[in-house]
Request: fold
Amino acid sequence: MRLIMFGPPGAGKGTQSKMLTQRYEIPQVSTGDILRGAVKKGTAVGLEAKSYMDRGALVPDEVVVRIIEDRLQEADCQKGYILDGFPRTVVQAEALSRALGRLGKEIDAVINLEIRDEELWKRLTGRRVCSHCGQEHNLFFKPPQREGVCDCCGAALFHREDDQEEAIRNRLVAYKKQTEPLIQYYRERGKLMTVNGEKEISQVFDEIWAALERMSRQ
Reply:
């Protein structure tokens, strides 16, 4: 099963991806992780990416796609994978399609987690993360029993920089401008599956699983 997990910041993409990787026994392929991995391994394309990263420049799409193409040929991806963080634009989606075509593959489905802006705002501005164990709390939905203290280990909670109001506003603007057009792109190709991301985590997962099972039987 070759999947793309899609949705705005705070929609729950990471949580649902992890649950799917366990169910299907396929890897979650994160753009950031494979970029760092390619650089660490010292591959030709990894060194090319490093030349951009070292000077603080964005790694060009064609370089990212080549790194992804290399990653998708590794043994653990032969049963499938979930792409996380890529593509972010229609141009990237088209480049990904060409790369997969060279491998004789294509994306099976794009899971779009749909969620209202006001819900996203609460999820992101209210999020607090434990400085020790990484457990997440939310001031609106899952407040800590003691203010500023993790329920799990008692360490201090902190407010991530990218969860500050200005950062969230910028992230949502970028998503709507650059990434949201992918909804129509994949809908036109019959790949899009839209799921209500505002339900309980287990309910969202059950909807995704049921939709993928229906698709696999077609």
Strands lie at 2-6, 28-30, 81-84, 109-114, 127-130, 136-138, 157-158, 192-196.
